[in-house]
Amino acid sequence: MLEVEVKAPCRDLEERLIEMGAKKVGTEKHEDIYFNPTHRDFRESDEALRVRSVDGKYFLTYKGPRIDSEMKIREEIEIPTEPEIIEILRSLGFKDTAVVRKRRKIFRLKNLIVNLDQVENLGNFIEIESRNYRDRDKLFEILEELGIDREKSTTKSYVELLEEKR
């Protein structure tokens, strides 16, 4: 499946999103543990393997290399799993490389997912996502409707942003 995403630092935009017609879907607490195999560095190959915990549920996600320089577009494969997957990966030699914790408010707007993230040690961000490449321009349009300059957006992951901050 394809992930099409634009991300930018922001202030709290919940009120503005609702004014624009967004429907709040919910609030989640995420803890993401990222892993690297011993035979290659996913930072160099621009891939990611993570286990996400969301309110007691676990998901294993693989993200392929980005295929666009202006926004984050990449293959994403996610499956539900159990917490034991963490020990399985470690037993197979995978190393923990990063942990990202965030509180996420989720909205639906114009068939898109809009996430307002409060990322531990990083701050507030907005992520606008689709699974359809044709929605690419819509993502930037919504960002601009919210008063966020396209130039403020980033293709970097939270892991990369946290590493830069260190």
Key structural traits:
Hypothetical Protein Pfu-838710-001; single chain; alpha+beta
CATH architecture field: Beta Barrel
DSSP helix fraction: 10-25%
User: What is the N-to-C order of secondary-structure elements (H for helix, E for strand)?
Assistant: EHEHEEEHEEEHH
Query: In the CATH hierarchy, what is the superfamily?
Result: Hypothetical Protein Pfu-838710-001
Please tell me what the overall shape is: globular
How large is the count of helical segments?
A: 5
CATH fold-type name: Hypothetical Protein Pfu-838710-001
Number of β-strand runs? 8
Q: Roughly what fraction of the amino acids lie in strands?
A: over 45%
Give a description of the structure.
This protein is 21% helix and 46% strand. The chain has a single domain, classed as Hypothetical Protein Pfu-838710-001 (Beta Barrel), CATH 2.40.320. The chain is an alpha+beta fold. It has five helices and eight strands. The relative contact order is 0.26. The radius of gyration is 16 Å and the shape is globular. It has an eight-stranded antiparallel β-barrel.
In short:
With 166 residues, the chain is an alpha+beta fold. The protein contains 5 helices and 8 strands; from the N terminus they run βαβαβββαβββαα.
